[in-house]
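Protein modeling request. Please complete all fields; requests missing the sequence field cannot be processed.
Requester role: graduate student
Desired output: 3D structure, token encoding
Chains: 1
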Amino acid sequence: MTLRADRAGRTAWRWLILPTSPSGTWRIVVSCVSGHARGSGTTRVLVITRARGSSGAIGEPASIAGVAGEPVGRGGGVCGPFPPGQCTCLAYQKRPDVYNTAVAHGVPAGGERGLGPEYAVWDGGQWLVNAQRAGIPTGSQPVAGALVVWGVPNTASWGHVAYVEAATSPTHVLVNECNWDWKGDCRTIWENPQSASEPLQGYIYGGPAGNGPGAGGTQPGIGPTVGGSDLDFVKTVNTAGTVEVHWATAASGYQQRGGDFASDFSPADDANGHFQLFGSANGAPELGFIKTINTGGTVEVHWDTLQGSSYKRVGDFTSDFSPADAGNGTWQLFGSANGAPELGFIKTINTGGTVEVHWDTLQGGSYKRVGDFTSDFSPADAGNGTWQLFGSANGAPELGFIKVRNTGGTVEVHWDTLQGSSYKRVGDSTSDFSPADAENGSWQIGPF
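Delivered output (448 residues):
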């Protein structure tokens, strides 16, 4: 290839040894031609090599050699589509379901942004955004079996991805990682993901049904979660003119604000539906609005993501739910499918005798039904607590019930998963919360 020098007379390039390359030592041969229209001087070439002698590593520059130097690297090894020794290699080995699911949903494995194959869309820092594009659950809480991702996505930054072996809090996580030293070395170590040299993006949870942390039972977010979640507040009254989003971080013991942002929603819409925070995008919760009054005839779904210094709209869609059902249950946004939140409806009135679960996913230009199921919960319990959709099991959301009245003396947690043609019980637990606190706030099973 031919390279042009910059204004200072320097040039640079990247080189990549593919995992399919034969094993052994590879060298780059550099030929240099000097000469300028207005004369020339001595041409010097500095070749930045990558992790000299390491096994398949292509990390940060490890040395600088002159013309006589021979930049080297090593090929060979089996790690699917990724170079051996890299953090992406480990991620693929630990969670191939995440990669395979994302690719199957149209996230390419090659280069993008016109920067060449070295800036592949599956660099370490791209795993989380690609998972979200494919509808794979992600979040901000560490859990064994998840992938943790650092870096700034959609930039020239490589970022970093590791596998979570265990976690006792959001700041005390046991990770298995490779190429942490840019030399291809691997290790398992307790660390604080929030204080790494690159910004923490979040965690990738489930892949296809039956895979990922908590497969077949509990997913991240089924309480209690490790370390709890951030404390969120959607402000619709006494604002500066728009709906506002604020949150305090769990990592600080809720003593430090994580975000204070305006949105493009109008507080006047508060009477036409309800706002909700859910999921995560660009390192912040997403802001959703489910509109059931003054619509075009169907329940509508609208949501913003944090973009720069404020929340801006990314979706405005109709659904196949009727606003006439507003008095028969509750809607909520949860999870992710086809790059958008799912719309769920828990029906407790005018049912066939049990609490019902219905949900839509975005399909083309509108939300369409993908599930209509009964459960083993009784609508008679509607006055004793609240139901909620969360997580994922057997390819469907889980149905939780937080019981605060007519209990054995504490707040109770019950939940069903989809088993065959209906939702059936998988958990009945007590807590150390007092039902007397029911009027002082609200509980939820989450984050979701």
